[in-house]
Amino acid sequence: MEVNFVSVGKIFEKISWQMILLIFLLIFFVRNLLMPVIADDYSYAFIWDGEHWGNLIDGINPENLHSVESFTDIFVSQWQHYFTWGGRTIAHIFVQFFVWSGKIFFDFANVFVMLALIFLLFKISTNLKLRDVNKIYLLWIIAGLYFCAPSFLIATIWLTGACNYLWMSVAEILFLLPFALKFWNKNFWSQEKTWQLILTAFLGLIAGWSIEPGAALTVFVTFLFVLSAWREKNLQSWQKVGFIFLCVGFAILMFAPGNFYRMELTNTLEPDDIVTPEQQFTADMFLINFVVGFLPVFLREVILFAPIIFYFAKCKTSEKVSRFILSFSTASILCLLMMMCSPEFPERAGFPSTIFLLIASTAALKEILPQLQKIYQRRKNFVNLGGLVLCGIFLLSMLGCVAVENNIKNQLDERDKFISAHKNENPIVVKPLEVPAWSETLLGTRTWDNMTLWWGGDLEDNVKGNRAILFSKYHGYNLVITSEREE
């Protein structure tokens, strides 16, 4: 049996981090290709109709919808969006550009953004050079993203969701990176230059003007970095400028007139999509948000606390490292607590929480690696076997997602054929999409699930539903609705 362990160990040791990364990105790319234009993508394919409740309210008039056909259309659309729906202008500029230019461009770009996120997480967490990436760090980061991030499909692969969560997370960490490098090395960017001021101002504006929970955490952590530099009498002008522009961007995001208008509009027209107006900011709202948002996100993230707990319990190395870990882990918890105060807490809103906790967790992992290496030397064959098994589970899980998403794509292809055969009917009634019975149990929200389909991933059985109207307008069909979905 020992011989088998040794053989397995050799197999695992031969797997390089580059091979793991390549396999992950290839599967991620295939999943992007399988993901259709769907849900809010159709809403942002048209100029935002600010005069008639926007593009996401049931009962919209298709005659008021005009396709985005130029950069000018995107500008006009986002201007109206800002004043009548919400302040996520940067994210939705990307959304509208890719829906207009063609999803295939997004599919390629999204892989590079995911790659950027992985390397940014490594760099900001460890302060090591990229040549120091190894299998342990890489597996921890990509497994942390895949297994711990809520609504992985929605937040990283679906076009609208990825531009809001994945892309904006990259913007936030990219802004935080020089602050973190300055925290670790007091001589970093100590000779101030004009380009540093311009760069941090630009990155700060984008990071602040990203999405609400992630931007709020970025402001919190940046404030701690600035405070630390000030206490050490090493606060640079680029840090001040970056923090000011971050706050400006955050103010533009949070105080967008559309945020308040949308709340009033949805309370009036679609109270079932969030807690009712009577329940908002009551014990009922906090209980609902705890059950449907806080708890599932927190439980998914629990494993990321393991290196942090081990670090503080067994091998605390320095006060500076401890402050860094506590800053990002505290920000992670604050994200969930802030969302508890929102009238709606979809799981995907916890994505920034996972990103910031993963930074803290990876930073702790770096500190405990010497202890783990001692354990590895004592139980080398057993650890290698465990590593190979975990890689196998990881691979099977990702391939399972590909199978589910290919299944959904096939259903959509069959739907298109059915619509073509019944194009003269009005409305055209199609079967609702269905996920394989096994997928929710084994894969959860890492791929399609019934809640995603019900919450907007599929069409509706409502002739006034915005999904049906937008889908039909986009493709030039008579109204397409689904038959009633079985509970």
Explained architecture:
By secondary structure, the chain is mainly α. 70% of the residues lie in helices and 1% in strands. It has helices at residues 2-14, 17-34, 40-43, 71-84, 89-101, 103-126, 135-148, 152-156, 159-164, 166-184, 194-208, 212-231, 237-254, 257-269, 283-301, 305-314, 319-340, 351-378, 380-421, 439-443, 450-457, 466-475, and strands at residues 428-430, 480-482. A two-stranded parallel sheet has the order 1-2.
What would a concise description of this structure say?
The protein is mostly helical and 487 residues long. The chain contains 22 helices and two strands. Helix content is 70%, strand content 1%.
